Predict the 3D structure of the following.
Amino acid sequence: MFRLFGILIGILGTAMFALPFFAGIFNAGSLAGTFLSLVLLLGCLFEEKLRAGSIRYACRAVQAGYAVFFCVTAIACFCIYREYRNAPQEEKPQTVVVLGCGLEGDRPSLSLLYRLQRAYAWLKDHPDAHVVVSGGQGGDEIMPEARCMAEWLVSHGIEEERIHEEDRASTTYENLAFTRTVLKENDLPEEIIVVSNGFHIYRACLIARKQGYACTALPAKTTWWLLPSSVLREVLGIALEWIKG
């Protein structure tokens, strides 16, 4: 029974984690997920031979590794879920910070678009709030992500004077570190509302708190077929942040 369940999970996992490859997305989450799913699938298919062979002790070590991995994943997912409840408080002065997430030509990627839509809804409902759009220019991008985000918000009716660009960052850590300078230069509230996709919101807020921010969260939605690889990548990133302390 457990063997058949493992085979099913291995097949489904391989299919789900490999989906981003067809869109040209190769990241730690999709690669690790595909590898782990294939190992699980092959291990279940050849279970009897592996148990009888000289590598049975190595197989037990792999099984123990899977158990630890699933425990870490469960804890990380709980932390992500809990961050969803860290909603902004209406009465406090706060600055919205939208984290960059790649471009497609001169347009936001789908994940970045979801972040902008989430921030836009808050900014429309809170006309006194300001926003920092944070993201530099990658090697394959024709403009800084911050510029693209600012143009999108302006085209949807957000006043330019409410938008502040941070156009140097290439990581989440830099997003938040460089944003502090923008906040100080423009005399903006240093309590921030972090806007990112739901899978990323816990790690982003964790990094923000390490840098001394008081922060709340506005999680944006995630494309369904990117969710498994995105969550797994975040689990790896979260575990690294925990290890770093």
Observations:
- Residues 1 and 192 are 50 Å apart (CA to CA).
- The chain is about 60% helix and 15% strand.
- The two ends are 41 Å apart (CA to CA).
